[in-house]
Design goal:
mainly alpha
Amino acid sequence: DAVMTTRKGFTLAGMGIGAVSLSFLLAWISQNFASVSGWAGFLAAALIALLLGWAAFTHLRGEELPGWLPWLVLGAVLFRLALGVFWFYALPKWGYPTDQQQAGYIMFDPFLRDGQAWDLAQSGEPLIEAFRGYSAHDQYGGMLYLSAWMYRYLGGDVHLPQLVLVLTSAVSGIGAAYLWAFSRRMWGQQAAAWAAVGLTVYPEAVVLGGAHMREAFTIPLGAALGFLLLRFWQERRKADIGVFLLLFAFTLAFSWAYVLLLLMVLGLFLFGLWVEQWAGKKLSAWQWAAAAVGGVGAVFLSKLFWDALSRMSEFQSGLSETYSGVVQAMFDRIPAALHTPFLVVYGVVRPLLPAAILGKGDSWLWRALGIYRAVGWTIVLALLLYASLLVIRKKGWFSAAGMLLWGSWLVSLIAAYRAGGDLWDNPRYRAGFAAFQLGLAAWAVLEQKKQQDALLRRVLVSAGMIVFWVLMWYLPRYTAAPWRSGTVLDKVGVGLVTAGLYLLWDWVRLQGKETP
C-alpha cells in the first residue's frame, strides 16, 4: 500500500509539473516566442484535459486496461497537439498566401468559425447565441460554443487559437482508450492493441484532432457510444444507459447529421448482436415487437436523412466538377447517368495515393500532408476490403462484425455522395467513424495472423497494382513521361486485369502447397 501510494504521488507530481511546463511552452510559442503571457489559460485548459483523461480511465477501470494504454493515450494527445501548434508556425512560412493559411489554419471553415468564436467571447452576449445561428460556419453551434467558452473564461485579451487545441487534442487522444475497450470486448486484447495504436497514428484522426474541428469530438464520442452499447448488451449495466444518453446529447451539439449516421451504424451493430444472440432460438412476442419498432424507426430515419442528403449533395457535386480536372474529364467521357456513381466511387478512394505523390503545384508541406493522409486511407481501405472478404467467406454478413462492416461501407458511400468526392469534406465526414473502421481493420489483421492464408497478401498486391496503373495515368499529366495518359478508366481497367492475372497465377502457384 505504501509503495502504491508513493507511486501515485510521484505520478500526480509528474502530471502537475508536466501541465505547468506545457502551459508555459504553449504560451511562449503562441506569442511568437516573445512572451509567456496567457500561460494561466493554457494551464487551466491542460488541467481540464487531465480531468477528462482521469474521468475516462476511471470509467474504464473495470476493462482490464494494460499498463501501456495511458502512455499511448498521452502520446496520441501530444502528437495531435504538436501537429496542431505546428500549423500556426509552418503554414505562414510554407503554405499558400491566403488569409486562412497565413493565419495558421489548415482548413477554411475553422478559420472563420474560430474568429467568430473570439468575437462572441468578447461581445458580452450570452454564449447560447452560438446555437441560434450566430455563425454561418457552424450550423450546429457546438464547436462555436465550446471555443467561445474557452476564450471568454480561460483566455485573456489576446486571441490565442492554440488554447482550443489543448482540449481538442486531449479529447481526440482519449478516443484510443475507448476504441481499445470496444475492440477488446469485440475481438480480444490483441485486436484492441492494434486498433488503439492505429487510431493514435491514423492521419485523418490526427489532423482533425489537432485542429478546430468537430471530428476531434465525434470520433472519440462514437467510440465511447459503441463501447457503452456493447457493454450494456453484454452485462446489462443500467448506469451505461445514463452515460450513453448524456454523451449522445453532447454529440448532438456538434452535428445532428453525424448523429443520424451514428444511429444507423449503431443500429446495424445492435441488430448484428441481436442476431448472434438469438440465432436459432424461438423469439417471444415482445422481442418480435421490439424488432418491428426498430425496423420502422430505421426506415423513418433513413428517409429523413436521405432527403437532407439529396439536397446537400447537389451543391457539392457541382463544386467537384468545377474544381477537379479529373472529374471534368470523366464527366465528358461517361453518360450523365453515371456521373453520380462515378463521384461516389471517386470519393471512396480519396485521398488517392498517386495524386498525392504527383500533385502539381503543392508546396512540400502540403504534399507531405497529402501523402501522409493518402497512405493512411489506402491501408485502411485495403484492410476493410479484406475484412469484407473474410465476412463473405465466413457467411457472417449478419454477425455483429458483419453489420458493423456494412455500416462502415455505407458511411463511406454516403460521405462520398454528400461531399461530391471532395478531397477534404468527404474524408472528414467518413473519419467521424474512424474508430469502427480501425477496429475492423485490426480484426482483419488478427484474423490473417491466425489463419496464415494468402487472402490479405492478394488484396494488398492487387490494390498495389491498381494504384500503380493509376500512377501511370497521372505521370504524363505532371511530368514529361513519354506516353499518353488516356483516361483514368483505361488505367483502372488495366489494373483490374493485371490484378486478375496475378490472382490466377498466385492461386495456381499455391495449389498443393497451402490452402489459399
